[in-house]
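Researcher: Go.
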Amino acid sequence: MYNVKSSKAEEFINHEEIVESLRYAEENKSNRELIDSLIERARDCKGLSHREALVLLECDIEDLNEKLYALAKEIKQKIYGDRIVMFAPLYLSNYCVNGCVYCPYHMKNKHIKRKKLTQEEIREEVIALQDMGHKRLALETGEDPVNNPIEYVLESIETIYGIKHKNGAIRRVNVNIAATTVENYKKLQEAGIGTYILFQETYHKENYEALHPTGPKHDYAYHTEAMDRAMEGGIDDVGIGVLFGLNMYKYDFAGLLMHAEHLEAAKGVGPHTISVPRIRPADDINPEEYENAVSDDLFAKIVAVIRVAVPYTGMIISTRESQRTREKVLRLGVSQISGGSRTSVGGYVEEEAKEDNSAQFDVSDTRSLDEVVNWLLELGYIPSFCTACYREGRTGDRFMQLAKAGQIANCCQPNALMTLNEYLEDYAASDTKKLGKAVIEEQLDHIKSDKVKEIARKHIEEMADGMRDFRF
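Model: Structure:
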């Protein structure tokens, strides 16, 4: 039986409910009256159910699809404005005991060079990232209880937070590691992580088990229930996602939204972020072997419907996607992107030889962080390096209350401008700095509170004298 509040994976991600929802959406994909009513109702930024969202995804009426895209842009602007949060992944280790058939880290892959960073190597990688201008990282490791135990991850987090190089500092460490126990989630929370991220890959149980034939990740229920355990362990912010292209995209789309609904209903807080990766080429992995590829146009529609259905969530797109694709989905709902990313272990310090490939996937957008920042500024966005909400305790339900009410901009707008100015002062190329300063001056005038505007302007002026790390 489908039960959104159940703690059992097969009840809150219920196969029969998804099948029935898919049938309903197919039957109503040309129902103009229903689709128009859903779009109009979603304007209140309170979201839609997974079944309603599937109807919008299936919609085959061109003018209503255009109306949907316009609404996605409107909701994105209302909640997140022009701000785009910047981050970078940091791969600690590619040792893994799982047999995931879509990932080059699978244990049977003998081509890939296995690496694990020492704490000194982590320090070197972090300094390289700080010298780019990054303030927010997402830690990545394979699952290996011998090579990558929780103690290694905790020590690495402590190392990262302890590194202060010139004006650089990593202020938020998000963690993407395998499903684990409540006790281990408590340890991660005590270590001061930002968001705990874990992708489901696919919510179709039978396909999930086929894609993960061996290793601890084979356990569908344990993996799917990980976010419940993370929240039980005290982690306020969690991030979910599927790997589009592995399974029937409609099924996984429904499962993704059902997972968000479950967290909201059972834990009182929906996902802080939703990621939308698509399968990419990598060592030992050929995406053409998978029959369920998602086209660029369909991918854009998926992003738009998620934004409408789950308006409060941050949406993440990585350098898996090309510049062209990223530009398209930024308008439709994405609020966080990576820049200058390396997906190999140790890739920020040294360019890796092709024969030593340790990357998890090929990067499509290979531009430097400064090139990405410059590009965003040219497009009219505000690249944000802000971590203030996490550091001020605006996490979990406290963040969601502000986001759902459309009030998060009161803090985010000035913080985004101040952290952008930090980047411009310390790391930007001259043309990026010139462009960014003009954007800051223009955007300061958009801050509604005269007092906040005055304080932000004062702090930005103080940065010219070497002061840093201001936040509301």
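Model: The longest strand covers residues 83-93.
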